[in-house]
Every structure is written in C-alpha cells, then in structure tokens.
Specification:
Elements: E1 2-7, H1 12-20, E2 25-30, H2 38-45, E3 49-51, H3 64-77, H4 84-93, H5 99-126, E4 132-135, H6 150-163, E5 173-174, H7 177-210, E6 221-228, H8 231-236, E7 256-260, H9 266-274, E8 278-280, H10 289-301, H11 309-331, E9 333-339, H12 345-356, E10 360-364, E11 389-395, H13 399-405, E12 410-416, H14 422-429, H15 437-443, E13 451-456, H16 468-484, E14 488-493, H17 498-504, H18 508-519, E15 524-527, H19 537-543, E16 546-549, H20 554-561, E17 566-569, E18 587-588, H21 591-604, H22 607-618, H23 630-639, H24 644-652, H25 661-664
Parallel strand pairs: 1-2, 1-4, 2-3, 4-5, 6-7, 6-9, 7-8, 9-10, 10-11, 11-12, 13-14, 13-16, 14-15, 16-17, 17-18
Helix pairs in contact: 3-5, 5-6, 5-11, 10-11, 11-12, 14-19, 16-18, 17-18
Length: 665
C-alpha cells in the first residue's frame, strides 16, 4: 500500500503509476490546492484514494512533536556542543547562552523528525501486516512544521539511536527509490544555495553599508528601547498603541527609542514624528566597515566546517546580528529594552550583546492562548517560545511561568503584573480613552435597553486542534443565542478575513455562510477580519455586558481581568479538565450549558454576587489583581530601580511552584 502524507495536485502521475502497479493508495491530509483539484475529487469520490483517519493525533503536530524534541534536545546537542563551530561562537559572544541559538535551530528540525516518526509508528500499529510505501510532504503550510527530507529523516533517525533519544522503531515502512533520488538532488541543491548565499552575503553586506541611507538624528542615550516587531499590527491598533507604555509621567517620550527590524512606512514614520518619538528602522546603517573586517576570520573559517547547512546558516546569522547590535551600542546606550513576540535567534544574540553593556531586557506577554491551556496532559510546547533569553518575562498569569520554564528558556525572573490590556478596558469605561462604539452600534439598530454581548472567534485550520468543524459549531451556537434571547445584541469580531477561509479550507462555504447568516441578523453587528480596524476588541469588551470567546482566545481573559463578565464556549466539548475548565462556570461545553450560563450572567447574577465569584475563583488563580492597572505596574517597575529587588521578592516574584493549579481549587 502507498500512503501520501499530503496529497498534492502534482502527485497526479505518481498516483497513476501506483494504480498501474495495483497498489492501494491512501492519504493523511490534502494539500490546500488539492481541495479544488478535479482529479483528486474524482478519485476520492469513487473510493480509489482513501483517507486514513488518525483522529486528533495529527492535530498535535505543533505540540507533542515539539514536546518530544524539547525532551530530547540535550541528548542530540551533546554531540555538537563541543564542536569548533560552537567554540567560535562562544569566543565571539563571550557568553555560553549563545548555544540557545543552535539549540533552537536544531530543536525545530528534530520536531519535524519526531512528527514523521510518530506517524510511522501509528501506521505500523494500524496496518500490522502491510508493507507501507510512504511519501512524506516537504511543503510548508499554515500550522505545519517545516518539511523533512527523506535524507534528513534517515540522518536524524541514526542520530537518535546513537544518543539513545526517545524513538519509535520503524520496520515496515519504506521510502520509494525515486523519492530518495530526488531527495539527494534537493539536498545537493540546498548545499549549493547555502554556498551561493555564503559567497554573496559579504558583498551584499558591504554594498548595503556603502550605500546606506542617512540615519535619523537620535540621542546617544535612552532609558528605554521599545522594539517594533509587527509594524502593521502595532500601528493599526489605536488602543494597544505602539507607544502604550509612554505616559509622559513615569515613561517620557524623550527617554524612549523605538527600534524596528524592518523599514517603516511613511504613515508609520509620520505617527512617530508627530508624537515626537525617536526611532530606528535601519539597524544595518550602524555596521562599520572595520567591524566587517574584524568578522572576516570567523566568516571565512565557515568553509572548513562540515556541519549541516542549518547550523552554518545560524552561524552566519549570529555574525550578522553581532555586527548590527555591536554597531548600535557603540553609538547609543540603552538601559532597558522592552519587546513582545520577539522569539527569533536575533533576540538571543541582541540580548547577550546588550547585557554586556548593562541593559536589562524584558519580554512581555500580549496574549495568553498558549498550548499549555489546551490539554490536561500534553504541554504543547512550541519552538517559537523555546530557548528565549531575557532578564525579565512579564507574565499575566502564574501558571504560564512553568510552561516557559519547561521550554529551556533563560529568564532570570518572571514578574506578574496581571493582564496588560485590562488597563485599556478600565480607561475606556472611565472615558480616559475616547470611543465612539456605542454611537456606531446605535446606527446598527442596537438599543440601550438591550444586553450587549461581545463575541470573538479564532484562527481555524482543518488540520489544527482548533479546526473548522469547531469554528462552525461555535458560530451556530452564537446564532442560536440570538434566536433564543430576544433581549440581546451581539457584536462579533472576526479574527480572519473571509478571503482567508476561501484560501485555506474545503469548508469555507459553510463558515462564510454562518458569518453571513449572523451578519444579516437584525441584532448582530459583524466586524469583519481585516476590515473596520477602527472597531477595537478592547472597546467592544469595555461596553459589553458579557464576552464570549472561542477557546482559549485571550479576550475572555482580558475581560475577566477588568472584572467584566466573560466565558469561553467550547462548542465541540474538546477541552474538559483543562486549566480554564477547572474554574466553575467559565467554560461551556455545549449549547445547553452556554444558554444556561448566558442567562445566568445577564439576568440572574447581581454585580455583588459576580464580584464574589471573581474573588473566589478568578483572583489569584487566573489573574492576580483584577484591577486594570497592569500597565501602570509595569511602568513603575521599569522606573524605580531601587525597588527592583523588593518588587521581585514581595509582590511580583513567581516562585518555581510544583503544586498544580488544578489541585489548588
């Protein structure tokens, strides 16, 4: 039998060849282009190609396979940690934490190996008497780990046996000869491309330095540097603004420098100029020709190292980042660097360099939908959140600290200020932040006597743990609420554009039909994903009587943190006994539960009773403060140097707790 990991339109003649050889053909999933392929539809329709259902096991490819990689990374890494390549990196950075770069790069590759190894084991168990010809995917799709070449899989399989890492023994699965041949060709091509990049990189770097644009005038010293990681997102959000920490009392404009990894648009520059905020969006301009000359010895020695290309590319990366940040700190001193979603190897290199100059680094959470909240027994670690290197991790919730500790991160301290964005909710309610949402809703037939419910969906994918089946069921429940409760008005903020669903799923007609059905309801206002950016999540929550979110979107957490009524709706009953489900009345697992809890929260519980609920079940368990002052605490922590130790020791220190939260309730 022949099994395709991911059936693609380009497999048409391979499929015909195996039909000619009288082989039974199966597949695990369809490539998104195959969804619309006529020949694929035809063969599936007549039963000549059959789908293999491994249940939810394929939906955990960003969880258990990364978990296996994290659990075994040290065994793999022992072989290379004393290599001359890493010794050169240690010599350059003068800090052992530079090994986090190589661990992070290796961990991502190992995760893909474990993904395939796990699939093979499941197939062996399912087809005990069959010889299986397996054709893996080397494509990269949304929510998919990088492709794993056959040659790479065999390499890591031998490596795993050598270091005695966790491994499923595979006996009855083979790769076809033609696939091995093309895999060798691709590996040779990969090596060639690396050499091409290698020889062109130095010329590219020098040409950029010679032809660089004049730098914007900036000061030589800043108390705070704030990273711009996602310019579109940070500048388009008028509530959670790019400069949300700047209040001109504790954190003053003249003390701040904004640093962007990428070039800013004229609109983005105009905002910073209007607000009189200094910024850099061209770090390459700080690279000096003398520094490039000093790097040549390290760079040229790469030709004599016989490591995998991904290690060599990582080494080129750390040379490049060294040049940029060493160049910057020769011109500018920074006391504190603050960032979010900054988890690439760039951040590891930067933070080591800044630390040598006495700069403290801070990574703050901007959401709380991490993998550890989706399962009671699987950690769902992810490479993005692994091997981070910061002085302080600003968390919203104590429980998440252990998740990051298990991901080989190097955080000196976890500091819990509570949910940052809850402060915006409080300020909107207190009219410190202007909002015209209610005026807009009145134009959409909302009346003041109605109960206002804010609803937030999520990002769906057919092969994800939060798939389209779940999303459609969630939206169906929301529509039923409108039908059953005539006193409510719903604002639904769609996470993704409807065009996204058309590109990504075979069920796009079903989910778009549900959005349109809700949109056409007289008591529902849909804020479309990618459109109407002026309608902000914080505004919607602030004016709502109740917030309902798809599991486990951060909006419900934000609402609770500001003492707003909120729940998660687990429409397909997938998340029982998980972290949030340990709180009574917080997660509804079917429509009956949803209707009952919504009625209870909107009509039967007084503010006094709900506050008692918050104090008993939410405060100190989900969020520590429930006062909407997390950003203020963050500012105070940054400013008062003399209080650092006392803050950490008394109020904000997250002890390395072994007691389970689920046992504490």
């Amino acid at each position: 039998m022949v099994i395709f990991e991911e059936l693609k339109p380009s497999h048409k003649y391979i499929v015909r060849w195996y039909f000619f050889r009288k082989q039974d053909i199966y597949y695990l999933r369809l490539n998104k282009k195959s969804i619309f392929s006529k020949w694929v539809k035809k063969y599936i329709g007549i039963g000549k190609i059959i789908k293999i259902d491994l249940g939810n096991k394929l939906h955990t490819f960003e969880g258990v396979y990364y978990d296996l990689a994290f659990d075994n990374i040290d065994k793999f890494f022992r072989i290379i940690e004393e290599s001359s390549l890493l010794k050169k990196a240690y010599k350059l950075y003068k800090n052992k934490n530079i090994n986090l770069v190589f661990k992070k790069v290796l961990n991502e590759k190992i995760a893909r190996f474990y993904y395939l190894n796990f699939i093979f084991n499941e197939l062996q168990r399912k087809f005990t008497k069959e010889k299986i010809i397996f054709i893996p995917s080397n494509g990269i799709e949304v929510y998919r780990t990088d492709g794993c070449e056959v040659i790479d899989y065999l390499f890591f399989y031998k490596w795993a046996k050598r270091v005695k890492a966790d491994l499923f023994e595979i006996k009855d699965i083979i790769f076809p000869f033609w696939l091995r041949f093309f895999s060798y060709i691709r590996v040779i091509k990969r090596k060639f491309l690396f050499l091409l990049k290698y020889f062109s990189f130095l010329g590219w770097l020098i040409s950029k330095r010679i032809g660089y644009c004049k730098k914007k005038d900036i000061s030589s010293h800043y108390k705070y540097a704030l990273m711009i990681i996602s310019p579109y997102r940070q500048f388009s959000n008028r509530i959670q603004k790019v400069d949300f920490l700047v209040d001109n009392k504790l954190i003053k404009k003249e003390d701040c420098l904004f640093i962007s990894y990428r070039k800013l648009t004229n609109f983005q520059k105009e905002y910073l100029d209007t607000e009189r905020l200094d910024y850099i969006d061209n770090l390459d301009s700080f690279i000096s020709l003398n520094d490039i000359k000093d790097m040549l010895i390290y760079y040229l020695q790469l030709l004599f190292y016989f490591q995998k290309e991904f290690f060599l590319e990582a080494f080129v990366g750390i040379l490049y980042y060294y040049l940029k940040w060493e160049g910057l700190i020769k011109k500018v001193t920074i006391e504190h660097l603050i960032t979010y979603c900054d988890f690439g190897i760039h951040s590891i290199c930067r933070n080591i360099i800044l630390k040598k100059k006495g700069c403290r680094t801070y990574y703050y959470m901007d959401s709380i939908n991490f993998g550890c909240f989706f399962s009671k027994d699987v950690k769902y670690r992810h490479n993005n959140f692994g091997f981070l290197n910061y002085d302080y991790f600003v968390i919203w919730n104590d429980f998440v600290a252990k998740y990051f500790e298990s991901s080989q991160c190097n955080f000196n301290n976890f500091v819990n200020f509570g949910c940052l964005w809850a402060e915006h909710l409080r300020e909107i309610r207190e009219k410190k932040i202007e909002s015209k949402l209610i005026i807009t809703l009145h134009k959409k037939k909302y009346k003041d006597k109605m109960k206002l419910i804010s609803v937030f969906d999520s990002t769906f994918h057919d092969d994800s743990i939060t798939n389209y089946k779940d999303g459609i069921k969630f939206l169906e429940g929301i529509f039923r609420l409108l039908e059953d409760l005539s006193e409510v008005f719903i604002v639904l903020k769609e996470k993704k554009s409807r065009g996204y669903h058309k590109k990504i799923s075979s069920r796009f007609n079903e989910i778009i039909s549900m959005y349109e059905k809700l949109e056409n309801h007289p008591r529902c206002f849909c804020v479309k994903g990618g459109e109407e950016k002026w309608v902000n999540s914080s505004e919607i929550i602030a004016f709502s009587d109740l917030t309902i979110s798809f599991p486990f979107t951060s909006t419900t957490f934000e609402a609770l943190s500001a003492r707003k009524r909120a729940i998660w709706y687990d429409a397909n009953d997938k998340f029982r006994e998980t972290f949030y489900d340990a709180i009574p009345g917080l997660v509804c697992h079917n429509y009956t539960e949803l209707l009952y809890r919504v009625n209870e929260l909107l009509f039967n519980i007084s503010d006094e009773d709900y506050n008692r609920y918050l104090e008993l079940y939410i405060k100190g368990k989900l969020e520590s403060y429930l006062d909407g002052k997390a950003i203020s605490r963050f500012r105070e922590f940054l400013v008062h140097k003399n209080l650092f130790n006392s803050y950490i020791a008394k109020d904000f220190c997250i002890a390395k707790k072994e007691k389970s939260f689920l046992q504490s309730i």
